[in-house]
Amino acid sequence: MSNEKKGVLAAFFAYAIWGAFPLYWKLLEHVPSMEILLGRVIWSFVFTVLAVVIFGMRKDLLADLKYLWTHQKIFWQLACASFVISMNWYLYIWAVTHEHLIETSLGYYINPLLSVIFGVVFFKETLSRAQWVATAIAFIAVIILTVNYGTVPWVAILIALTFAIYGVLKKKITLDATRGLAIETMFILPFALGYYVYLFSTSQASFLHVNTHTDVLMIVSGIVTAVPLVLFAKGAQNIPLYLLGFIQYVAPTIVLILGVVLYKEPFSQVELLAFSIIWVALLLFSGSKIIEIRKAHHKSA
N or C: which end of the chain has fewer CB within 10 A? Predict the structure, then answer.
């Protein structure tokens, strides 16, 4: 099997796992969202550090930490990225466990377009006319949903915004996926452990206080978090970015299907119209990107 095919499969499975995440977090509905987040941070750190040791990357991890410490700007940039992705995780967990799956899906559909706007603002990237039109079309869909809900879809916007900010902060930082997750969770670890001390001292902790099933799910959340990240890294290394960008829509599509079909969240004709408009925007955006890359490839050939 060629490297590109392996890359496509790895990326597809990464996004499929991310899309299926709600099935996992729903099993922990009886645990407060904040505690699920803290458990996820702690156990992700434990398992990624174990993976680093098992795969003989201990020296590399120490070299990464030394590099970050001697480059303070990158160190604080990564610390900020860690807090932003933790906010994103919290919003996602809260949304899933509070019947906001469709809005979560919307957030991850909007995210690529928001990332594009951030690219223009922060990195002086240029957009074609088709890409500007696609962004405007998606914005119209959000306005339709806002009018339909009678309120701004804050969950979707905040999920998209935190992930886009995370992308901006991480753009210039190149770290191996496993070691990167170990370092990012390390930044949040003191806060997570401190909060757990508070939960245990006030008898509010679910971990070790509900049942073994809950404890196992909390611990395994660390592996569940790490596996798709490693798959994603393998995919990103072996396939072009535009292809990776196209595959990323697998995750919100699975979330949307789960929300409508499995969990019977209300999905009106207005929402179907808004989502259809977003799909048109994404097709226009992705299509123009593919044409752009092919033109550039032919020119350089």
Answer: C
